[in-house]
Amino acid sequence: MTILGSTGTGPVVDKDGRPLRALNQFDTRGDQPVDPSSGDTGRPSPARRWNPLATRWGRVGLGLVVPALLLALWQLATSVLGVFAPHQLPAPTAVWQAAVELATWEVGPTLWEHLQISTQRVLLGFALGSVLGLAVGALVGLSRLGDALLSGTFGAVRAVPSLGWVPLLILWMGINEDSKVTLIAIGAFFPVYTTVASALRHVDQHLVEAGRAYGLRGTSLLLRVQLPAATPAVVSGLRLALAQSWLFLVAAELIASSMGLGFLLMDSANNGRTDRILLALVMLALIGKLTDALIGVVEKRLLRRF
Amino acid sequence: MAITSPTTVRTHPAHPVSIRDVGRTFPARDRGGRDTPVLAGVDLEVEAGEIVALIGASGCGKSTLLRQISGLDTPTAGQILVDGTPVRGTDERSAVAFQEPRLLPWRTLAQNVALGLPRGTDKAAGRQRVAELLELVGLGECTQYRPRQISGGMAQRTSLARALARNPGVLVLDEPFGALDALTRLRMQDLLLDVHAAEPTTVVLVTHDVDEALYLADRVVLLGRPEGAPRGTASTVRTIVTVPGTRPRDRGDAELAHLRAGLLEGLGVHAHHQTTPTP
After folding, report:
1. Which of A105, A113, A235, B199 would suit a FRET pair with A145, their CA atoms being 20 to 30 Å apart?
2. Residue ranges of the alpha helices (H) in chain B?
3. Interchain contact, B100 vs A214, CB within 8 Å
4. Which of B90, B102, B151 minimises the CB distance to A206?
């Protein structure tokens, strides 16, 4: 008769050396992590109802429900019920027609040119502002001297409302790309600066000490311990900064420009083209959401490690 | 657990540690406050390869002394020599494991252990050394896990592996097993002794646990303020107990129980220990 063999400390095995699952359920050699998905209960999983929250496309679909309802309501209120006059609130179809018309506009810049120049301004300003924000934030967050010297001043500058900068920037740089990109950079700078400074100031001192104990100093400590520890906060700061950049873009373009979504808004208001105003707003919403989603993807990839 | 002596990187020879008349006073936090003397006149010679346990009441300066040996703190009086040269800041002669694992959460266990490797270690050799050390502490199959995926005991073992990756001449352990459950702690103590047998480095450790001190150490050093001194007096070496017998020791040994009672008295705890007269 074959006796089930046990090798002392190892799992109980059959005569071919294969572990016997039923006899090894209390096999807790060491404290190995348990993978719940490997637990084979032998029972079939009960047939589940379709749950849209369970899949990504299901969630995207749910996110589209409210915009679709709003669109339907909008169409209903304007072209069917006629609650609003067309010069107050044109129908969605009229906005679409305005988009088609503007896409091949020959009198002035096309819709694409508006979009392109606005996106370019935002990206340039955002890049400039966030790099500076990262640098100054690191200085203030890591050095007590930097903190004492700079945080008061930057706090005060930050309190200046965005539009307050416009006259000065126009005076100094003129009405051109430089002044607009600078204004957007100012807008992008502060969210990054604030989050980076505070995240670096609050990096777990235990980890920093461990890094020091293993010979990390200065730049190597920053790159290997402090910045990675602050990554989640830095990324959310960047996200805020991007949203702020679009905000400042419109401020810049409303005041002095001959192209861009902000200009389209202003110009259409002056000409009574409510359909184009709505078009510009929808474009801002869509492109803002798109760039935010892009940063969201980057964020997800970066934070997978945490 | 099979202990194989690592071969890829040469181990530092164990270093002796001399603590000479060391004192540490923390300056007052605000104007008008009083300076806090924590250590004064601490003298201790630790031989190369020896295991010394520091015990003492909370706040007596054990951890401060330990941080000074590893270069994370500087004495305000006296000096500490490792292998005959003074400690100035952290250096590669010593490696420290803290009470908490302090692993970098965004790195895998292998990458965390690699942090301990001495600068300029050859890449391939470093990788092999890390693999060997994780094997040594029983985590050979978890090298790619991240710290949040493992238990506290496993994290503490990783922290020990990281310290060993330095090939330290002095291994400095600050209550390394204090936060672990009782059973895991006993396992970790045996693991430490296995590691010490495989790589006989000098070990200085702080513990709150008198039994742990007696089980692990060659000598147990009791730190505390001198007898009869008022509160707020700096601590110094009160007693040094040489633990008899060779490791591994019997945890229930009667002689150890006697020493334990003496040390507990020294810590101000009544041990309720009855001395049975030997016939």
Report:
1. A235
2. 62-69, 109-114, 123-136, 152-165, 182-198, 210-216, 254-266
3. no
4. B102
Give the span between the Cα atoms of B243 and B253, in whole angstroms.
Answer: 11
Nearest by CB: A212 against B72, B142, B166: B72
Q: In Å, what is the CA distance from B211 to each residue of B219, B247, B253, B254?
A: 13, 14, 11, 12
State the residue range of the domain holding A241.
123-201+229-303
Distance of CA B170 to the CA centre of its chain: 9
Domain count, chain A: 1
Rounded CA-CA distance B213/B195 in Å is 17
B12-91+170-265 CATH, one of 3.40.50.300, 1.10.10.10, 3.10.560.10, 3.90.79.10? 3.40.50.300
Q: What is the CATH number of the domain that holds A237?
A: 1.10.3720.10
Taking a contact as any Cβ pair under 8 Å apart, which residues of chain B between 98 and 157 contact chain A? 98, 100, 102, 104-106, 115-116, 119, 138, 141-142, 145-146, 148-151, 153-154
SS3 A27: coil
Distance in Å, alpha carbon of A214 to nearest chain B alpha carbon: 6
C-alpha distance from A216 to closest chain B C-alpha (Å): 9
Question: What integer pLDDT is reported at residue A201 of this predicted model?
Answer: 92
Of B96, B104, B119, the CB nearest to A213: B96
Res. A246 pLDDT band, cuts 50 70 90: very high
A85-122: per-residue pLDDT in tens? 888 899 999 999 999 999 888 888 899 999 999 999 99
ipTM over 0.90: no
Q: Per the domain annotation, does A287 fall within a domain?
A: yes
Per-residue pLDDT tens for A23-71?
Answer: 444 444 444 454 444 444 445 555 567 788 888 888 888 989 999 999 9
Bond before B248 cis per omega within 30 degrees: yes
Listed as ranges, residues in chain B with pLDDT below 70 are: 1-12, 273-279
Say what the pLDDT of residue A8 is.
40
**B95–A213: do the CB atoms touch at under 8 Å?**
yes
